[in-house]
Amino acid sequence: MTAPHGRGLLHLAAAVDQRGSFDAAAYVGPAQLAERGALDFVTLGGTSASPGPDALGVLARVAPVTRRIGLVPAVSGIRAEACHVQKAVATLDWISRGRAGWQSGGPTAGYVDEDEEVDENEGKDEDEGKDEGKVRFRDDGDGDTGTGDGVPRGFAGRDGPHRVDYRGSTFSVTGPSIEPRPPQGHPVRVVDATGSSARRTAARSADVALLRVTGPAQARALRAGLRHAAAESGRAPDTLRVLGALTVDLGDGERAAEPGHGGGGPRHTPQGPLYRGGPVGLAELITVWHESEAVDGFHLTPLEPRRDLERLVNGTVALLQHRGLFRTFYPGSTLREHLRLARPASRYAVTGGVS
């Protein structure tokens, strides 16, 4: 599907974090609201440095009461826990029938000033050994472990358990792996790619890169750099989705927009880029950035969770759908299908078999 201006339909996601709320039931309504708007996915746990609920546990509770929306918890970046993270995210992928992802990086990475020079080739060098374990562990099971109805055929796969033999700079794992391969093959990896080191990671192994920038020119340069670095690392640039990341304050409507702010772009705040205005102005901003190939879509964090998410879905998203820029229904059932990303083939798939 393509938008009227010739690009593919844009991608939209939202954070559902709620300050001071530790009850999983409190996150069901926001996730269902985002699903009614046909958003690609929601995130939890990646937008605040303060203690919050167990994002994986909460979204595991949300999964059975939603049907299509992708579920992306923020997870620990501690490499020693990589195997545990893999198992937890894979479990969420099974519970949700192929709608799981995981987010690394966060708002401590800063954001790019609109006056900052950006090198489009930045990030193409590799940090050898970093994060490789996290990515590889998710592919240790056999490629044909699912029946298509969310039920694994067996933990050993066709050829029995595969051996894990990973040796990195900070930890090593050896032995048999009996984990079934998740429905998506690899649950979607989302990386906050605002920092230069995070951009290198995103270019190598992310499915979705988030950029907290304040203007389309900076976003366009960073997106071009990420795509170039992805190609340099041996992957197709079109396998990476780049989303602008903004906090949105829709409380005072269109009259709150300031010159060069609501009408032109976000403004700087200590927490990152902030858009303040109304749903219509936000739709205009999203349209301009997408049409100019600055981003493939947006990840939006409501400043006031309940109020702003409702105005986002019922106002901004509805307007984008009316303009033919965003889908009105989910054509697929998995998060990879929402993002128009192929299911990765298993390294252990038998030639000619299902992967």
SSE topology:
Blueprint: E1 11-15, H1 28-36, E2 41-44, H2 55-62, E3 70-73, H3 82-95, E4 101-104, H4 132-137, E5 162-167, E6 172-177, E7 188-192, H5 196-205, E8 208-211, H6 216-232, E9 241-249, E10 274-276, H7 279-291, E11 297-302, H8 305-322, H9 335-338
Parallel strand pairs: 1-2, 1-11, 2-3, 4-7, 7-8, 8-9, 9-10, 9-11
Antiparallel strand pairs: 5-6
Walk me through what this model shows:
By secondary structure, the protein is of the alpha/beta class. It has 9 helices and 11 strands. Strands 1, 2, 3, 4, 7, 8, 9, 10 and 11 form a 9-stranded parallel β-sheet that branches. The chain has a two-stranded antiparallel sheet with strand order 5-6. Strand 5 (162-167) and strand 6 form a beta hairpin. Helix 1 (28-36) runs parallel beside helix 8, helix 5 (196-205) packs across helix 6 and helix 7 (279-291) crosses helix 8 (305-322). The protein is globular. 49% of the residues are buried. Residues 108-138, 141-160 and 351-355 have low confidence and may be disordered.
Features:
11 strands, alpha/beta, two-stranded antiparallel ribbon, nine-stranded parallel β-sheet, disordered C terminus, 28% helix, single chain, 355 residues
Mean pLDDT: 80
Euclidean distance between termini CA atoms: 25 Å
What is the chain-wise order of helices and strands? EHEHEHEHEEEHEHEEHEHH
Strand proportion: 15-25%
Per the principal axes of the C-alpha atoms, what is the gross shape?
globular
What ranges have pLDDT less than 50 throughout 5 or more consecutive residues? 108-138, 141-160, 351-355
Query: What structural class is derived from the secondary structure elements?
Result: alpha/beta
Helix run count: 9
Specify Rg, calculated over alpha carbons. Answer: 20 Å
